[in-house]
Amino acid sequence: MTSFVLFTIGAALVLVVSCDFLRTTVSLTGTGFLSRTIAGGPWCLGSIWVLMHLCGYVLIFRGGLSLVHAETGAPTTWVLTMAFAGSTFSTLGASTAKMTSGGWGIVSMIAATNGMFLLILSVSFLLSILQTTNSARTFASRFRTLKVYGPEGEASQRIAGLGPDLSRVVVMLIASPLPGFFVPNDPAMDFSSAIIELCVLAEDGALVETSEIVAAMKLLGRHPGTSSDRDDLAAACCRAEHHTIVRTDSR
Question: How far, in Å, CA of 215 to CA of 232, rounded?
């Protein structure tokens, strides 16, 4: 009975984490529940994915007589089972344990395939996050450089010219909102506070309602649905306030 419970819990854990991983990395529609929860804290998302998968496979292999010591033939301990699951999941294949049957060998193959896809997609996903973060900070920096000319006249036209850049960043944020949690130390590169300032300019009429930059802000407000406000600009501002920090003047 205990073995069945361990196998069931392990399989459920692997299934839930795999769904969250795929939802976050390849769905292009946002993040999974676990990813949203973890991203709000000081935890490394990639490490959590790997550790939770590893825990799941350890429980699965402990759900029966799946492994024996290669030399003595004795059943493996929890430590050796963890070492086998880790080496299999990381596709290294180096372990002093061996499978007891072909069925458990298939489970081992599934774990190795799962690990290969997770490691590859995790690296690609992290690189995508870095690219989105850099693009967002570049936009914020350019916006503040143009804003020093004042919110009217030529400055407003120049700011409106940033529409294509903002649209590009918004589309990347819709695909993966995680970069929004990374607030830079330099306020000049703070994308979320730049969105708040842009919303103020739009509400004051300094930006044309039909301009591309206003359309991009409205698109940001409609996704990923962090606010129930029907006004897309207000929703974009609400989202930005959720992803920034209050700064104090240190001077």
Answer: 9
